[in-house]
Amino acid sequence: MVVEVVEEGVEVAAAGEGGKMKTLDEKTRNLILGFQKNEISEHLIYKRLSLLEKKENNRQTLASISADEFRHYNVWKSYTGEEIEPDGLKVAWYLFLARILGITFSIKLMENGEKGAQATYENLISIIPEAEKIEQDENEHEKELIGMIDEERLKYIGSVVLGLNDALVELTGTLAGLTFALQNAKIVGVAGLITGIAASLSMAASEYLSTKTEGGEKNPLKASIYTGITYVLAVAVLIAPFLILNNHFLSLFLAFLGSVVLILLFTFYCSVVSEVSFRKRFTEMLVISLGVAFLSFIIGLAARQLLGVSI
User: Does the domain spanning 3-149 belong to CATH 1.10.287?
Assistant: First the structure.
């Protein structure tokens, strides 16, 4: 394949398959340069992830995707005739996400961000025949390879769901009820802390026994740790306002806001790694949590009036 730059890079004469010469206008060339930069950046991301990965099958899978990305880069390079530097910020960002949230989340988030490029690939096929093969690789081969990655933390996502969902439903309801019954931020915070820690230990123990009874690949101890830690983190977010502030209604509002943020972040994570509907799962968890909290409002208010509790 031969590439010749014409008129200071504004137009490019490229020899495609069969040696047929094609002329690329400036807009198309800049578009290809963007694809080229993206491919070399992802090649570097996958390559570095493969070097960091301890599991042999995961390392081979990541190395294979890295090779695909480099091959795509060379296809685009054959049309532009330019060497392109990787996007250092993008590389650093996705490597950081991989270390914090896992390889699967990082690479699926990266690949999801490129879905808009599919229509552009289709428009380029008439000019660059290889664009069709690249599109197929992006849509099929790489997805299959990504699906082969075996990441331990994904086995325990059910335990995390259990811990987070139970903490949000139980504690938002408890805090709502206590706020209306006691109307004292510090007392509500302490009561919520005691309730939350006790509940987290209970949930961790239940998850251990449940996982051990079910058998399977999951380690019962690890499952219980994932559940317990998730529960404790949710407790910390929800009761912090009550322990810091004196206004109990403001504290309750901030606890609800924290609950929504936790649901938002966790739902986004699940929607990426499990490829499920973000809107559906977010709405479901939000309605359940706030629904229980609303019922607890009523119970707490009724308890205060009927039992004559006043602090």
Answer: no
